[in-house]
Amino acid sequence: MANSGAGVLRVVEREATVYRRLWRASVFSSFVTPVLFLAGIGVGLGGLVDERAGRVQGLSYLVFVTPGLLAGTAMQVGAGGSLWQIMAGTKWMRFFHGIVATPVTATGVYGGYLIWLAVRTAMSCAAFLLVAAVLGGVPSWWAVLALPAAVLTAAAFAAPLCAFSATQETDLSFPLVIRLGVTPLFLFSATFFPLAQLPSWLRPAAWVSPLWHGVELCRAATTGRAALGGGPARLVVHVVVLVVLIACGAAWGTRTFTRRLAQ
Amino acid sequence: MTDLGGALVEGQGLTKRFGSFTAVAGIDFTVERGKTFGFLGPNGAGKTTVMRMIGCVSPVSEGSLRVLGMDTARDGARIRGRLGVVPQMDTLDSELTVWDNLLVYGRYFGLPRSVIRPRAEELLEFVQLTDRRNDRVDPLSGGMKRRLTIARALINEPDLLLLDEPTTGLDPQARHLVWERLWRLKAQGVTQVLTTHYMDEAEQLCDRLVIMDRGRIVAEGSPQELIAQHASREVVEFRFEDRAVQDAAVAAAGEAGLAGGSVDRGVGGAGSGRVESVGDRVVVYTDNGERAAEAMAGRGVRAASVLVRRATLEDVFLTLTGRTLED
Ligand SMILES: Nc1ncnc2c1ncn2[C@@H]1O[C@H](COP(=O)(O)OP(=O)(O)OP(=O)(O)O)[C@@H](O)[C@H]1O
Ligand SMILES: [Mg+2]
């Protein structure tokens, strides 16, 4: 067990080595794009919203939308890194097969990769939070808690999606995951507008959106107002939902990675 | 190392099933410490499947398999820590440079960087890739990738080396280079398990080998033993351009008494006294090639070419696994 723990870290090291060479390519999707959203929607569109509608849930639009974009970024990093990159390791470049010929196990590969995605999420989200703070979108110091919330959100996507990707023989399903999963969630999880804007029959659907739980946590943190996440008890529920998703994903991923890499 | 009774790998009734298909059908074999052991066999015989089970990346379906004195089912990670693996299909990390491939791989074994670096330098030198160390792996030629894979397999100074077709795709120079290195490793006491389709390679490297066919072992022994048991001392190959002439030659060989030998394999020299007609050739297994050639000429057989040579492992292989490709 001590051994498999070390194996996980070796896989993280591998990812960090690759990242040192290729980080420029990912800076756009994981940092520049979210910041452009923040500037365009938070500041630009937000000015218009504030003028016409006054405040959103008692917040300026920029302050309202910042945690939404933050959790959305976490989802993008978590989900985006769990599809084609897994296929590269299992089928296209096959380097995962090289790793499991060493003391590192298939579970170690899976765990290490998830931890690496968590690290990347933390980096992207920290940078995003800094920029948002400079722009005036982060009124509270509680915002530091938004980082672990963002990491939880990313992992809630990455754990089951990596597990799923390891079962796939081709990448045909991946664009569907993005178009039918990630994009709609990004738009309708209280990211850009409160759930109250949705027709009342649709609102309960938010509960099945992992992103919504993440957004609520992030919003409570960046504004420092637990009430915005539904109150302290509701916040605990959000955390529990995300943790359960991660745990189920991990149980599944351990099986699918082992089946793929050690048959 | 604990008491292994000299056996580094021991398979008993070793079986591998994929669904209802049996890829390895209950084989017994023992690899002695310090020796080089070969698995030969036609495509699909089950060689890679056996190698993957020994490498503890593929669970055994039935039977037992002990490697380095440990059970592959229980101690997989510990066993893998002491193996060097050259898989048939490359698993190099094409997102990394040549150098980082070695460095990162060494880290999977838990080695400190200070240990890995000098080893990596030395190994790059050995496979003659020092000038490509900062290149990415992707643009390397197939043979260079193979050489890098071999270097990578040695980064943990393994006790047991698993080589699945290590020299396939290498040019002759590189092949001889690899052979030299494998001899040197053997001299250092590194046990090796090898698969290959090159019979000269098997003869050069293997102390013992088995020939597999459809998941079973059909012969076992040292290269010399196998040649003595399943082939003859010499082989004469007659090549023909005309089918009728070739058929006549087969008949002539029978009349000359060249086909009179026992076909009972397994008895010493039993391979001698056989005549086979394959493609545009008639192949005669005999103890005296010159005399057989003369006998045929005496019966008026006019071949386009006649070649007398010593029997090789290739003859054994073809005899035991069928000359032509089935299915
Ligand atoms: N993962 C798998 N799933 C199903 N069948 C498999 C799997 N791996 C191997 N096989 C089958 O097992 C048989 C043996 O394959 P194996 O790769 O061991 O042959 P081999 O002796 O190494 O052949 P080659 O000389 O072509 O490398 C083949 O029929 C192959 O199709
Ligand atoms: Mg093979």
Structural class designation of chain B: alpha/beta
Taking Cα atoms only, what radius of gyration of chain A do you get, to the nearest Å?
19 Å
Helix count from the secondary structure assignment of chain A: 9
Largest sheet of chain A: none
Approximately how much helix is present in the residues of chain A? over 70%
How many structural domains of chain A? 1
* Helical content band of chain B: 25-40%
Q: Would you identify the regions of chain A where 5 or more consecutive residues have pLDDT less than 50?
A: none
CATH architecture of the largest domain in chain B: 3-Layer(aba) Sandwich
The pLDDT mean of chain A sits at 94
Number of helices of chain B: 11
Q: Uncertain segments of chain B of ≥5 residues (pLDDT<50)?
A: 262-269
| Overall outline of chain B | elongated
CATH level-1 class of the largest domain in chain B: Alpha Beta
Q: Any idea what the shape of chain A is? A: elongated
Largest interface: which pair? A-B, 27 and 32 residues
Order of helices and strands of chain A: HHHHHHHHH
H-E string of chain B: EEEHEEHEHHHEHEHEEHEHEEHEH
Short description:
The complex is a heterodimer of chains A (263) and B (327). Chain A has nine helices and no strands.
